Amino acid sequence: MSKIRPRLGFGVQVACAAMHWPEVRDLAQAAEDLGYHSVWLPDHYVATPDGADPDPHLPLLDGWTTMGALAQATSRIRIGPLVASNTFRHPAILAKMAASLDHLSGGRFELGMGIGWFDFEHTSFGIPFPPTPERLRALEEALKVVRALWTEREVTFEGRHYTLAGAISEPKPLQRPGPPLVIASSGEKVGLRLVAQHADHWNTYRPVEEWSRHSRILDEHCARVGRDPGSIVRSAMLPLYLKVDEAVQKKLDAWGGEAGRGWFLVGDDAEIDQRLASFVAAGADLIIVQVDAARDNAATLRAFAERFF
C-alpha cells in the first residue's frame, strides 16, 4: 500500500441512527484511543435517508446534547457537528452553545455550519425551510453573528434575517478568537465564497474528481477576497464500509453501483488505499470516515486504523 496519508490524519463521523448512548460513547473513546483526529456528530432530528438503513423511524440521539456528554467522556479527540443546520436555531443561541461546548471540552470544539438539506425533518417538525438562496443569505449573516459574539464585548447587528441590539455572550470560547469554523458546502458561486470569507475549515462529501474541482474553485474565491488558500483546512467525508452486507449493497446500488463507488471508502485494501491517496494528492488535509451501521462500528474503526493509519 502507498501509505500516503492526509496531513491531519482521519476523523470519524458517527451517524448515530439506531445507536444508543453507550455505543456512541464507546465509539468516541475507541476513536480517541486509536489516534483519530476528531469525532463528528450529525445535527438532525430524524434519521436521514442516506444511511445504510434509511428508516426514518430509527432512534436518533440529539447531536448537541450528545456532544456535551462526549466532551466529558473523552480528553484529547476534537469534537464537533458535521454540520449544524442554520435553519434550526438563531445564530446567537448557536454561538452560546458552541462557546459552552468549547469550555466543556477543554478547548477541543469545532463548529460546523451549513444551510440544511433534509426537508422532511423541517416540514414534519414545522420548521421553516426556505429556498436555497434564502438559506445561503441567512448563513452568511449567521457566520458574522457567531464570530462577532465570540470576539466582541457587545454586538449590535442589523441584517435581513437576524437583528441583535447590544447582545452579550459570555463566557467567550476557550479557543481564541474562537473554535474553528467549518463550513460544509459545494456551492460554486455562493457557498465556496462564504468558505473563502469566513471558514477555517472546508468540508464536503463528493467523489475525488468533484472534490478536487471544488477545491480549485475555492482557491479562486480566496484570490478574489485576498485570502491565503493554504489557511483553510480541507476535508472530505466518506462513508466507510469494510464489509458489504445486504444493506450496504442496497446503498451502493442506489448510488449507481460500480459507477457510484467513488462516493465511498469501500472495497479491498488496494481500492481503499488508492482512493485515500487520490484525495491526499488533491489536497485533502483530513479525511472523515462516516460509520452508520447499527452495530460493530468500533470494530470497523479499529480495523481501518490497523490497515490504513
Backbone structural class:
alpha/beta
Series of secondary-structure elements, N-terminal to C-terminal: EHEHEEHEHHEEEHEHEHEHEH
| Low-confidence runs of at least 5 consecutive residues | none
Tally of helical segments: 10
Span of the ends, CA to CA: 11 Å
Instruction: Please report which band the strand proportion falls in: under 5%, 5-15%, 15-25%, 25-35%, 35-45% or over 45%.
Output: 15-25%
State mean pLDDT (0 to 100 scale).
Answer: 94
| Number of beta-strand segments | 12
Gross geometry: globular
CATH superfamily: Luciferase-like domain
Overall helicity: 40-55%
Tell me the CATH architecture.
Answer: Alpha-Beta Barrel
Radius of gyration, rounded?
A: 19 Å
The overall number of domains is 1
